[in-house]
Write a structure and sequence with these properties.
By secondary structure, this protein is an all-alpha fold. The protein contains 16 helices and 2 strands. Strands 1-2 form a two-stranded antiparallel ribbon. The longest helix has 32 residues.
Length: 417
């Protein structure tokens, strides 16, 4: 294939990550793990720990699901621009086993914790005394919650590893059969992805206040997840480009395309978030409005205003110019800001149940975030070291590099060589 010649000089293994950077995830995991363990064992902190753990879990689940979506998107549309960064998104998606392990404390809380320490109060409510719970009894019962939750995690494991497995096999011989399999998995995966993401968001986050309902909630979580992931992939790509592993394949247009996608999901998230609020406000049904009424009290109102301006207007205005999408001076702080805004967004969804009086950043929130982030970073680095840093024989690699071959063969024309 045309791409074979373009990348034949690239070593099959990724360049090693610098020791100083490799130690940072370990330090975060160790310090955060100690803090999380204290929260888990001290009786007075156990409820706060449960909510802090759920907050961190939903945050890093966003990165895994965002990576899976970007992989599916690549194969679904036979894209060329995302070929150089596809291995990064594959490794993010293949953090699904780590996510499954992180789910264990949430599962234990649901099965064992009493009414005073549980995340999911509906599990201790009588559906015959609660019309909202009775209406959702098909899904909101303990056996169904457990079975569907485990099924969702299993589907993610299957999809992520099947896609990466076929991608790695493509590296060996470049056979068209692997490309066809990847396209088939993407076509199947987009439907499984939509259903499982929606179920996960409903079962693990929306069900904290089970009386509320919104048909847009899955899309809302999806939009924020992809927004966060694109910003994160931008930073990882920049580092690996400068460090060496991705230097042969990253072009200026790669950063521009990631910037455009980041801009697109900035607008899409704002559209979904506003639409959800507007429809509920316009209908003015108590079963729906109470969710927002609670989040307009105390400092939750200020956090809501921060998200309007920080999650939408700030990145929207910064990314309007074409050149800012390729400016590291703009994009790196913006990617860090995306992490802050997504943390605030998930806090806005989860924490009013525990802290109805206002927004609080508890030290356990930071400990759980540090622990999970450190563990996932270690797993990502380990995976990146174990495989080629980018697809070796993808049929669209030459096009991604700006190399265009005539149909009858011959010398290449265009950009990179």
């Amino acid at each position: 294939m045309a791409s074979t010649a373009a990348v034949a000089h690239v070593p099959s293994a990724a360049a090693p990550v610098s020791p100083s950077l490799a130690r940072l995830p370990l330090i975060l995991a160790a310090i955060g793990g100690v803090g999380a363990l204290i929260g888990m064992l001290v009786p007075g902190l156990q409820k706060q720990f449960a909510f802090s753990w759920l907050l961190a879990f939903m945050f890093y689940l966003s990165l895994m699901l965002g990576g899976l979506f970007l992989v599916i998107l690549h194969h679904l549309f036979d894209a060329q621009w995302s070929v150089p960064i596809r291995r990064i998104t594959e490794h993010l998606a293949c953090l699904s086993p780590v996510i499954a392990v992180f789910f264990v404390p949430i599962l234990v809380n649901a099965l064992v914790a009493g009414p005073e320490k549980t995340l999911f109060q509906w599990m201790h409510s009588d559906p015959h005394q609660d019309h909202a719970l009775m209406a959702k009894q098909a899904l909101f019962n303990k056996p169904a919650w457990v079975v569907v939750s485990l099924a969702v995690l299993a589907v993610w494991y299957f999809l992520t590893h099947a896609l990466r497995s076929a991608s790695l096999k493509q590296d060996l011989d470049g056979a068209a059969s692997h490309t066809r399999r990847l396209r088939f998995l993407a076509a199947l995966g987009i439907f499984l992805f939509a259903v499982t993401l929606t179920l996960g968001a409903i079962l693990w986050m929306k069900s904290l206040q089970w009386q509320w309902f919104s048909t847009m909630y899955g899309v809302y979580y999806f939009a924020g997840s992809v927004w966060l992931t694109v910003g994160t992939v931008y930073v990882i790509t920049m580092f690996l480009h400068r460090a060496g592993p991705l230097r042969p394949v990253i072009q200026p247009v790669t950063y521009h395309d990631m910037g455009k996608l980041f801009f697109a999901f900035t607008v899409f998230y704002a559209y979904i978030a506003f639409s959800q609020y507007f429809l509920i406000w316009n209908a003015n049904i108590p079963e729906e409005t109470f969710w927002y009424v609670l989040r307009e009290k105390g400092s939750w109102w200020s956090l809501g205003m921060l998200m309007i301006f920080g999650h939408f207007f700030l990145p929207f205005l910064l990314l309007l110019r074409i050149d800012t999408k390729m400016s590291l001076t703009v994009m790196l702080p913006l990617a860090v800001w995306a992490w802050v805004m997504h943390f605030c967004d998930l806090s806005f969804n989860i924490m009013p149940v525990l802290h109805p009086e206002g927004f609080v950043v508890h030290w356990l929130d930071l400990a759980c975030m540090a622990f999970m982030g450190g563990v996932m970073a270690l797993a990502f680095i380990r995976q990146f070291r174990a495989h080629p840093p980018f697809p070796q024989k993808d049929p669209r690699m030459a096009e991604a590099l700006g190399i265009h071959l005539p149909a009858t063969g011959g010398k290449s024309h265009g950009g990179a060589h």
